[in-house]
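Lecture 7 notes: from sequence to structure.
We start with the chain below.
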Amino acid sequence: MSEFSSGDVLGHVRLDKFLGEGAMGVVYQGKHLTLGLDVAVKILKVQTKNSMANNYAERFRREAQMVARLNHPSIVRVLDFGDKDGTPYMVMELVDGYSFDEYLRRRNEPVSEQTVHRVLLSVANALTVAHDEGIVHRDLKPANLMLNRKGVLKIADLGLAKEDGAAALTREKVLVGSPAYMAPESLIPGQNPDHRCDLYALGVIGYQLIFGQLPYSGSIAEVAQGHIGGRANFALPTACSKSTVAIIKKLMATKREERYQNAREVVADVRRLVTGVYTKSKGSSTAAASSGSGTSDFRNIVNFLENRLGSKSSEIDGKTVVHTTTRERMIVWLLLIGLVSLAIAGYLFADGQKKHPTSAPSAPTSTDQPAPDGPTAAPPATEK
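Predicted structure tokens for the same chain:
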């Protein structure tokens, strides 16, 4: 693999800050020199020198071409693709914010029903565009749902995406995706998952939102058996309505023929539900705002993460790197200024004591020798 570092130029992009590393690639923040945009640059780790590396490079190239065709505010855009000294790289829209997974891990409790509706609408609208182009994500999960600082949710990391009917570049008998969110047909050998596996994964995300936990836990084998057997418990306590739970349950149907057959059906059902719920409680204008466009406002979650939970962390080379917020840095600076001020004040006080000592005698230092009752004796004369 060719080594790249900050300051290197790949095509029209200058690498700036290292952001993270995955199994097959590293990611930098960069500057597109002709467009003047801050971008994310994903660099494939393996060079194209053997058949397996060629397969990964081909999948990487195909991913870039597929995602570049998609135009939706809830999908991270691909801006460019190239090859530098035999190493492919992809230039993408930079999402400055948090993953939804960070929010769920830090909140650790079910979210509001309105947030559930917003997530379902945003993701289902984006999937409608992807599926219309014949693109299946295959690894949909909260870690791949990004929230930028303007409160827009975006689907990221289409590294496992494939076109319906296209030959998979992954080896047989290798799981493709994250078991906790995988559809039964993705876990059974010989099956051919289609776009409905993304709908199942959306259902698992919805389950996690309404109940505050994943439907299945334990070893990979136990999780897989749970998905295949359809053993999810939908009777757990939740603040969400039965109608919302019913949508999640249909998304998670074990047999794909019993699920929603496309993302448009999900959007339609959620919009009908949202319009009914919020028209009754808050008026039709709120309902229209909640059920209208393909994007929803998640700024309340971003504010929650920034203001109440403080710093953001990420995993880089197996180590946790904490990224502080402006508010945190301001507090630290105020504390430092306060400590420095106290130190200066203490120094000035001590210096003043040295220059102007008090004339009062000091108290006796030993309790064994009490002071006499009479007047104190004159101090001994100093030697001349």
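Points to note: Residues 164-175, 283-295, 311-323 have pLDDT under 50 and may be disordered. Residues 326-355 form the longest helix (30 residues).
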